[in-house]
Amino acid sequence: MSSPLIKKDFHKLDVYRFDLEHLVDDLYEVSISNSISWDIMTLKATKEELKGLADFIKNMIGNK
């Protein structure tokens, strides 16, 4: 099966926008921007690191 055509997507949450872009192989770039203050934070992470972050968030909100 071929890889998906979409290499970049985003999600909005309150005043924040999360952009996720597949760069190469197993590397992704995540940008978090604030639409009010224009602050931007960018990080690069592997698929496994992002999966670990998602699992961490899921576990934290699942325990409440």
Structural write-up:
Helix content is 25%, strand content 47%. It has 64 residues and is of the alpha+beta class. The protein has one domain (8-62). A hairpin with a 2-residue loop joins strand 2 and strand 3. The mean pLDDT is 89.
Q: What would you say about this model in short?
A:
Helices cover 25% and strands 47% of the residues. The chain has one helix at 47-62; strands spanning 8-13, 16-24, 27-34, 40-46.
What features would you highlight for this structure?
alpha+beta, 64 residues, single chain, flat
Topology:
Layout lengths: L7 E6 L2 E9 L2 E8 L5 E7 H16 L2
Antiparallel strand pairs: 1-2, 2-3, 3-4
Distance between the termini: 39 Å
Strand content: over 45%
Structural class from helices and strands?
alpha+beta
Overall mean pLDDT stands at: 89
Query: What composes the largest sheet?
Result: 4 strands, antiparallel
